[in-house]
Amino acid sequence: MPSLPLLVRQGGRAAALAPGRGRSGTGARPAGVYPTRSIIDTSYSAHFMDFKRSSIPSSMQKLVVTKLSPSFREAVSVRTVPVPTPGDAELLIRNRFVGINASDINYSAGRYDPSLKPPFDAGFEGVGEVVGLGLSASSRYTVGDSVAYFGSGAFAEYTVVPAKETVPVPSVKPEFLTLLVSGATAYIALKRLGDLTKGETVLVTAAAGGTGQFAVQFAKRAGCHTIGTCSSNEKAGFLKSIGCDRPINHTAEDVSKTLRNEFPQGIDVIYESVGGSTLELAVNNLANKGRLIVIGFISGYQSASGIPPFRGATLPVKLLQKSASVRGFFLPHFLGDYREALSSMMQMFAKGELVCKVDCGETEPEGRFVGLESVFRAVDYMYAGKNVGKVVVEVTPAGVSNSKL
Ligand SMILES: NC(=O)c1ccc[n+]([C@@H]2O[C@H](COP(=O)([O-])OP(=O)(O)OC[C@H]3O[C@@H](n4cnc5c(N)ncnc54)[C@H](OP(=O)(O)O)[C@@H]3O)[C@@H](O)[C@H]2O)c1
Fold first, then answer.
1. Where is the Enoyl reductase (ER) domain (predicted)?
2. Is CB count within 10 Å lower at the N or C end of the chain?
3. Which atom of ligand 1 is nearest to the CA of 230?
């Protein structure tokens, strides 16, 4: 996935420098007393590594795509590699939590960047603490800072990330992870493509999932009547709790029939993530001047083509007859909106106005998703439709980190 420029702290702290290096102790001396030397050299980053306090090991585990396949288990292997060293503008982050995305299997199938050949790193997003950094990165961060990021290679115990692609967060909470991709997608897609007006009806499919939960809440905040599809009564209960007016459990109710009976004028805005027959029924239930936003088509991702079958021959007729539209949305195309979206969602969360539901697989027979290897179970869990909220894996449990920070 293309990387996003994330929020960076303005005028933040600098890291403490090793004695005799860098800025410390140079201020009072007249210029030219010391022999000239290059300020940035490759050895520098090592001086910013917090070896003493955080006990960075020499090797770590990471998940690597070794074979292109939409089956995550087939495509991905666990590798033991040296812990990487950050370059000048980079951070070494000890990942505490990483987020699972439906597209992790599109990525492992090579669908994002066909030029990318295995082996390559997996995982899109993480939150953790800075345990090492390069010189110029130290103008914004220091060891011990909590950061979140959206970038490649998150499925690892440690990840090196360019500082400009990270966002400072108040603490290492998994809730912040829910906003980077899932929250931002809902926020920006509805704002830029939804044209929501108070009193309109909004249908969200896969509504109890990572991004769906946010689409429901943002539509509700806009004063819309919200409808959400999901696959269990437990999920329907969760949807009620976040303000969804009409949860529809598609395993117990015929979604099309329910929509026709209860919303005979059709649906004004549809946030559609499932594709295939769900997309078909969504198109058929659009209102006059309705807007359908294509967010994804998860029902096809596990297949060889990645695309679910869709009977679209009559689509132009249906759209014309209703003056309706179908709009595609892909987060990396909306980078200009990203900063505002993230800071607005962080504020809502801080004020208790936004539920960021995290699902670490607590009810799973094998236990919570703890440790890097549980990424495999977590991907299966999402594709079994079990998750309520954003699927998150705790890579390094709090007690395992030696950091005193
Ligand atoms: N366009 C973008 O920039 C962008 C960004 C982020 C995400 N997305 C898309 O948003 C969608 C949701 O992604 P997410 O990461 O937030 O996942 P998620 O909603 O947390 O989890 C996926 C949910 O989809 C449903 N599902 C799972 N497998 C399915 C299948 N085979 N057929 C039909 N439904 C299935 C399940 O919900 P139920 O069992 O309750 O139906 C499951 O809980 C995906 O289509 C993803 O590609 C797009």
1. 71-393
2. C
3. 40
Give the position of tokens 């005193």: 404
CA angle 386, 387, 393 (to 5 degrees): 120
Positive or negative: CA dihedral 319, 322, 323, 327: negative
Termini Cα distance of the chain: 32
Provide the CATH number for the domain around residue 190.
3.40.50.720
Q: 178: CA distance to ligand 1 center in Å?
A: 14
Say whether the peptide bond before residue 264 is cis (omega within 30 degrees of 0). no
Do residue 387 and residue 328 come from a single domain? no
Question: pLDDT tens track of the chain, all 405 residues?
Answer: 434 333 323 233 322 222 222 223 333 334 444 444 333 334 444 445 655 555 788 899 999 999 999 999 999 999 999 999 999 999 999 999 999 999 999 999 999 989 999 999 999 999 999 999 999 999 999 999 999 999 889 999 999 999 999 999 999 999 999 999 999 999 999 999 999 999 999 999 999 999 999 999 999 999 999 999 999 999 999 999 999 999 999 999 999 999 999 999 999 999 999 999 999 999 999 999 999 999 999 999 999 999 999 999 999 999 999 999 999 999 999 999 999 999 999 999 999 999 999 999 999 999 999 999 999 999 999 999 999 999 999 999 876 554 433
Give the predicted TM-score (pTM) of the model.
0.89
Distance 303 CA to ligand 1 centre (A): 15
Residues with a CB atom less than 6 Å from ligand 1? 101-103, 181-182, 185, 206, 208-212, 230-231, 235, 273-274, 295-296, 298-299, 329-331, 382-383, 385, 387, 391
In a domain, 18, yes or no: no
Which domain covers residue 251, as residue numbers?
181-333
**Order of all β-strands in the sheet with 59-65:** 76-82, 59-65, 120-121
**Residue 201 gets which letter from DSSP?**
E
Q: For the chain, how many structural domains are there in total?
A: 2
